[in-house]
Amino acid sequence: xxxxxxxxxxxxxxxxxxxxxxxxxxxxxxxxxxxxxxxxxxxxxxxxxxxxxxxxxxxxxxxxxxxxxxxxxxxxxxxxxxxxxxxxxxxxxxxxxxxxxxxxxxxxxxxxxxxxxxxxxxxxxxxxxxxxxxxxxxxxxxxxxxxxxxxxxxxxxxxxxxxxxxxxxxxxxxxxxxxxxxxxxxxxxxxxxxxxxxxxxxxxxxxxxxxxxx
Length: 214
Ligand SMILES: [Zn+2]
Prior knowledge:
This protein is an alpha+beta fold. It has two domains: 3-113, no CATH class; 118-213, no CATH class. It has seven helices and ten strands. It has helices spanning 34-39, 83-91, 102-113, 118-134, 173-182, 184-187, 199-213; strands at residues 3-10, 17-27, 45-47, 54-56, 61-65, 70-74, 95-99, 143-152, 155-162, 166-172. Strands 1-2-5-6-7 form a five-stranded mixed β-sheet, with helices on both faces. Strands 8-9-10 form a three-stranded antiparallel β-sheet. The longest helix has 17 residues, at 118-134. The mean pLDDT is 94. The structure holds zinc ion. The site of zinc ion has 8 residues, from loops.
């Protein structure tokens, strides 16, 4: 079952203190109703009962899908989960990930919920960024972020969000997956114990490949 805690929170606007319910862990297999609230970010959304100011608050939360065998852990720091426990899950075929902020947590949930390999998504996001800047589709300084935007008929949709508009780039999923599988020495995730697989991870891999060449 999902585990919740009650915390006191002081409203930053009116300074009144009120109780908020946070989810230490959610099990979407045993508690399927909570799933949509995670995917929409609703479990991080709070409204002050006194002045009705609303907030997005990040707190450590472990998302567990027993059917699809994955756990996504939202936590800025890599502490709080016993290693022997996570080792047991890895042995039974689980994929474990850690995310450092709400947006990457929600994006990761969507990627895994769509049954995709997140390395393919990070690779495609990086490629989309290079393509966008190299082909002068827009200014690099206008880019606010690059996000996973859905999956349909083997096509990965990557959204480049900019100050004024943005662009959606289509990437053939299977082609990138084979590229990754053909270079498993590079893309293999060595530490399976809640690694952070994000843009920093993909950049570190390309840098490593570059240094091997030179
Ligand atoms: Zn308030």
